[in-house]
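Lab notes, practical 5.
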Amino acid sequence: MVAVVRRLSVVLVAALALAGCTATEQPPRPTSTAPVVQLGAPGEDNRTMSPEEQLEITSAPHTDTDVAFVRDMLHHHAQALVMTGFVDERASSDGIRLLAERMQVSQQDEMGQLESWLQQRGEPVRDPDAPHAHTLMPGMLTEDELAALEAAEGEAFDALFLQSMIRHHEGALVMIAELYGSVDGAEPDLAQLAGHFDSDQRIEIARMSSMLAELSG
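Output from the prediction step:
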């Protein structure tokens, strides 16, 4: 009888030990081996980030430089919408009208993204149509130049619109380059957003340059 009790005790202890191991020991969680790629600045290659860099970049805060860029770009985009607003009544080319329509959609979409970036970080969104405290950003038209564009018609308008919008887009590229080159700017999400803007602007510049060459020819 004593031997039976001892055997039962051994079995009970073993069972408890096994249950304890089952409750506390979990299989190791799979770790992601997918590389994280950091987008390079315009003209630079992308690169794969180390785990340490990934941890650091996820906690990077936005700065006053980032906020200033976003608000300036909102104002910059707002003028582009003013320029495309002249097209329907003044352009002679259906191609110009289609181009302007696409620009209006893309610029409005980008403005929505910029406003959301500010809102998500608790930053007030300034009305891009309100009087701007700064000097004109790169590529922006003066009031006299806007008036001249508004007064033009037909093929003269087509050519002036393309010239003006190419300059406007090139100014946006300068602003993006300045953000990337700043000491404390380009929070990760904003850097990615600006990179998309850069690509879109370059594509549109190439298209407008081709259309302007056709007009000149």
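Observations recorded by the TA: Confidence is low (pLDDT under 50) at residues 1-32. Helices lie at 2-24, 51-58, 64-84, 87-90, 94-120, 143-151, 154-181, 188-216.
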